[in-house]
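Email to the structure team, subject: DNA topoisomerase 3 model.

Hi all, the expression group asked for a predicted structure before they design truncation constructs. Nothing fancy, just the tokens so they can compare against earlier work. One-line instruction: predict DNA topoisomerase 3, return tokens.
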Amino acid sequence: MGKILVLAEKPSVGRDIARVLNCSRNGNGCLMGDKYIVTWALGHLVTLAEPEAYGEKYKTWNLADLPMLPDKMQLVVIRETAKQFNAVKSLMMRDDVDELVIATDSGREGELVARWIMIKAGWRKPVKRLWISSQTDRAIMEGFKNLKPAQEYDNLFRSAQCRAEADWLVGLNVTRALTCKYNAQLSAGRVQTPTLAMIVERENEIRRFVPKDYWTIQAKVKGFTVHWKDKRSEQTRIFDKAYADSIITKVSGQAGTVVGVKRDAKTELPPLAYDLTELQRDANRRFGYSAKKTLSIMQRLYETHKLVTYPRTDSRYISDDIVPTLPERLKSIAVGPYAEAARSLLRSKIKVTRRLVDNSKVTDHHAIIPTEQYVNLASLNPEERNIYDLIIKRFLAVLSQPFEYEQTTVLIDAAGEYFYAKGKIVKSKGWKAVYDGEEMEYEEDDDEREQSLPEIREGETVKMASVALINGKTKPPARYTEATLLSAMEHPGKFVEDRNLRETLESTSGLGTPATRADIIEKLFDSFYVERRGREIVPTSKGIQLIGLVPEDLRSPELTAKWEQQLQLISRGKADAGKFIAEMKKFASKLVADVVAANETYRHDNLTKEKCPQCGKYLLDVNGRKGKMLVCPDRECGYRKSISILSNARCPECHKKMEIRGEGEKKAFYCVCGFKESMDAFKKRKSEQVNRKEIVKFLKQQDTKESINSALADALAELKRKL
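Reply from the structure team: attached below.
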């Protein structure tokens, strides 16, 4: 009987599968057993060929040679990982290997990884597919008992290949056209450019914004605060100060009559389970993590610790077959801070609703939830613990009862003007008990903040005390953070006027997919189109100019979302891959023509007086993700030099983060407040701080114990006095 070759996406996953399949003998890039041989990729081993593969003329970048439209796209082995590809190919060529199991990530890109390797290696034998949502031993064993015919995923591969070829056709053609036309390192892409366009448009809105003064009125009544509102429009802001002053004069010192006391029983349902984008948003809001960092942490929790299910999902629901596993998942997390909530759910019968279980809303993978793997919280580093905490609390909240409360709304008429207040009495904390003591995004806005209200009856007369006029200014729209940018990418419909197109956008995954959005945002930083200011994302001059140079068609979220919709249809066998690529070739040709015909100019406004040591061109001063850099504008040169790195070290005077500048012995810390400190002085100061803290901590511990009469105790006491 022949052997079965198993192809995983990464060595770590390959080793886990090998352990479950009893493959313990080391081979060349593989682990072998009696029945199975497990090998792995290193991410992609094969990729689409560069333009040079289609002709000598493409080795140099010339506008006249565009567009580049190969009849058939070629695959090449990635040079850096060629050794592992050769190992995989040699295993595929073995006479005793009769069957292949694709065990790469269960998604579009994972399918592409395996299929391209198979095509390039010339695999012609039977193939099956392992499709699992977690990496626990049980999930792997169950998966191998229920292997799927690989043909079921042929359309998924076609959609993945179309995505890759579309990116090549559009991205490389427009990038070469822009770079040649404007003699600058410029690039564009089918998702990257509309995303940048949103950031630039937001910046333009902020620059155009003119703040306006407005006033609100509030008063004290029986120990609580009431707010004025317009009788007709119910607006609380007044933009005419004279009118606001007249209301103050009218109601000050007057008695008001309670004209309405309304009590409503309200219910707030639990939030939906996490998909990747929602998790990335929360991680950015709570911890300041980038989308890419969150995904990286999630991959470790999924692959290394096996504590959570497949992260690259766009679904916030689970399917019926997962429901029987919920008790065991709760048992696995019934530790530490989660024990009480998990055990409480286990004691009561778990009630699931369509808000959690909905087969029709589960795509390739269900929502992110914990696995049945027992968790040792001590094995997680702080970052992993933060993300795990988000997932577990959301899982517990989803399974909990609704939050129930009684809302009381009081309406007071004072001299013909209306004032209102809201109060809340909690009846059952429900799912919000999971988040006790935490600031939550679900809380009300300041204007709607609840307060404790005394017993009050309709018809009661109250005195309007401390009537105050409060001045405010309208604020411009906020700059994007990674959290809000992810939301905008997921739901770009609001940027589209056409109703039908807007509905189309909302029915697809938006700009990119949950798996690709983090890399798209990182690419904008790496290309110096945007930079971070705190948590805000701000477009650079280069990014703003690029949006003015890129053909209008490529800036539109409408078109990009339509492509993603087509890719989804291809993955379901409802659209033709060949037709899609033909349309992409036409589109690439049009984009190149638009760039060639444009009359715009590009200006480097960040040129320095320092010349590139390799090519002699003047270097550009840019803000990279980790600090300031000097970058050569010549694409073929590619010279880069770090000028300063933003450190985590805090200034001892103003407590802001300091920059590290210089090299070798000249390396030093600099702060915007003017503070400067050499590296040696910094290390000495930090060492003294650590020693001081350790001594104080030790002395505090001694205070809780019986006094010791010894020379050591006397010495420590003297030291404590000096400290």
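The radius of gyration is 31 Å. The longest helix spans residues 154-182. Ping us if the truncation boundaries need rechecking.
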